[in-house]
């Protein structure tokens, strides 16, 4: 008889029993609904309290460590029966005592980490107990492959716990562990196969070529000052000329102001090495009243011919340039002069060397050299060319002149309007 017919016959024969069953089923459904809802609320609360604030890697670490601990516990279940002879309730109570000890030690180690910034003896106990349970569970293995697997599972759990502790230690203390002095990176840097900074290959090559030029210039100067024979002087000058040719060819030295400043800085440092013995740096532990001011000396007064940039600097300008022998002071003056130059070019004015010297305190001779270099740049060159088209000679600052866009093109680049 079909099931539906049996149910219909039962309802016809026993209507009261059927009603009682329906009421009991309805009550069970209602109670089941409330139990499921309560469990869902508790699970949601636990999730938002303990799971959601944790990073994903911590959650995955806990899941993987739990699986590995379960594999180890399953091995201890077999070991307690086959080797120890435990059975029934005794086996159920005693088979996983080592796994419980491992979890207890891990919890204590985490608490020590948060309170004392170190896992302490409990961290060592985690590794010792993990190794013990791995060895015991693998002793009851039926094959070498199973033995290796049972050895690996607890060690994987311990490793995941150790990495989680290391991340938490770094987050709490703000520092990692010791830094080894002998690492592959340091060895490669030491033998010259790796770069210590993030410079590109072209930047490293340019720096080395500029350094060779500076060293060759220093060598030639030393030979000249020492009165070396003509043969040695010719060889030194020939080497300087070769290095300069290579630097101009491979580094763009002739058109790159940054490379030119870098070369001048290296030459300035190499030429004034002997000045280091005469420095009087401030004493850091001396009283404040006795510490000399680190401010740079006042710039020398600008003296000399100030009416035309095309004229050579007079003796006064040469003397003023000679006074700037400190590379740091020279770099500060050149930086200030460059900022003033860029600001004036933005205003569509081409400053004179006298303007640069007056505004920045730079010696006139150095200002003339800087202006002779900077006025070859596209924007400044376009302003000067536009002024020449209107009959204005480049003798200094001249008023802005609005010209069509093609007249302002320099090296094929348009700049809109210009002034000269």
Structural topology:
Blueprint (H helix, E strand, L loop, with lengths): L2 H11 L1 H37 L4 H27 L6 H6 L2 H20 L3 H20 L4 H30 L10 H7 L10 H25 L4 H22 L5 H15 L43 H9 L3 H20 L6 H8 L3 H11 L3 H12 L10 E2 L16 E2 L1
Antiparallel strand pairs: 1-2
Write a brief caption for the model.
It is built from 16 helices and 2 strands. The protein has 420 residues and is mainly alpha-helical. A two-stranded antiparallel sheet has the order 1-2.
Structure description:
With 420 residues, the chain is mainly α. It is 67% helix and 1% strand. A two-stranded antiparallel sheet has the order 1-2. Helix 6 (120-139) runs antiparallel to helix 7 (144-173), helix 9 (201-225) runs antiparallel to helix 10 and helix 9 (201-225) runs parallel beside helix 11 (257-271). The model is unreliable at 290-322 and 395-420 (pLDDT under 50). Keywords: Membrane, Transmembrane, Transmembrane helix. It comes from Planobispora longispora. The chain crosses the membrane at residues 16-39, 59-77, 89-107, 119-139. This is DUF2637 domain-containing protein.
Strand order of the largest sheet: 1-2
Please report the number of helical segments. 16
SS-based class: mainly alpha
Provide the gyration radius in Å.
42 Å
Count of distinct structural domains? 4
How many β-strand stretches? 2
Q: Spans of 5+ residues with little confidence (pLDDT < 50)?
A: 290-322, 395-420
Helix content: 55-70%
First-last Cα distance: 111 Å
| Main sheet overview | 2 strands, antiparallel
Topology order in helix (H) and strand (E) letters: HHHHHHHHHHHHHHHHEE
Average the pLDDT over all residues and give the rounded result: 77
Strand content: under 5%
- Apparent shape: elongated
């Amino acid at each position: 008889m079909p099931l539906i017919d049996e149910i219909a016959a039962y309802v016809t024969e026993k209507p009261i029993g059927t009603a009682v069953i329906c009421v009991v089923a309805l009550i069970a459904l209602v109670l089941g609904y409330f139990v499921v809802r309560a469990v869902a609320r508790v699970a949601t609360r636990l999730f938002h309290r303990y799971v959601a604030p944790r990073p994903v890697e911590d959650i995955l670490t806990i899941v993987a460590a739990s699986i590995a601990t379960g594999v180890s516990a399953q091995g201890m279940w077999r070991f307690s029966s086959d080797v120890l002879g435990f059975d029934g309730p005794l086996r159920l109570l005693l088979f996983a005592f080592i796994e419980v000890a491992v979890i207890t030690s891990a919890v204590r180690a985490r608490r020590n980490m948060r309170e004392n910034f170190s896992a302490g003896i409990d961290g060592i106990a985690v590794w010792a107990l993990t190794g013990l349970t791995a060895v015991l569970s693998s002793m009851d293995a039926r094959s070498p492959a199973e033995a290796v697997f049972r050895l690996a599972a607890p060690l994987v759990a311990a490793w995941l716990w150790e990495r989680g502790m290391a991340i938490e230690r770094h987050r709490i203390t703000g520092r990692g562990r010791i830094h080894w002095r002998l690492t592959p990176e340091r060895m490669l840097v030491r033998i010259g196969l790796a770069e210590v900074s993030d410079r590109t290959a072209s930047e490293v090559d340019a720096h080395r070529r500029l350094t060779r030029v500076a060293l060759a210039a220093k060598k030639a100067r030393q030979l000249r000052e020492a009165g070396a024979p003509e043969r040695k002087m010719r060889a030194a000058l020939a080497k300087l000329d070769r290095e300069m040719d290579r630097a101009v060819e491979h580094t763009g030295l002739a058109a790159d102001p940054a490379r030119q400043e870098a070369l001048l800085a290296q030459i300035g440092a190499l030429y004034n090495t002997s000045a280091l013995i005469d420095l009087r740096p401030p004493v850091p532990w001396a009283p404040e009243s006795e510490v000399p001011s680190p401010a740079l000396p006042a710039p020398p007064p600008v003296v000399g011919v100030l009416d035309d940039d095309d004229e050579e600097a007079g003796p006064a300008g040469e003397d003023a340039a000679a006074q700037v022998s400190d590379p740091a002071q020279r770099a500060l003056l050149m930086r200030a002069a460059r900022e003033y130059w860029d600001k004036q070019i933005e205003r569509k004015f081409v400053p004179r060397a006298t303007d640069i010297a007056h505004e920045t305190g730079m010696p006139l001779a150095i200002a003339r050299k800087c202006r002779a270099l900077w006025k070859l740049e596209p924007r400044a060159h376009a302003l000067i060319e536009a002024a020449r088209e209107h009959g204005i000679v480049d003798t200094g600052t001249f008023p802005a002149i609005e010209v069509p866009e093609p007249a302002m093109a320099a090296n094929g680049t348009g700049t809109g309007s210009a002034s000269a």
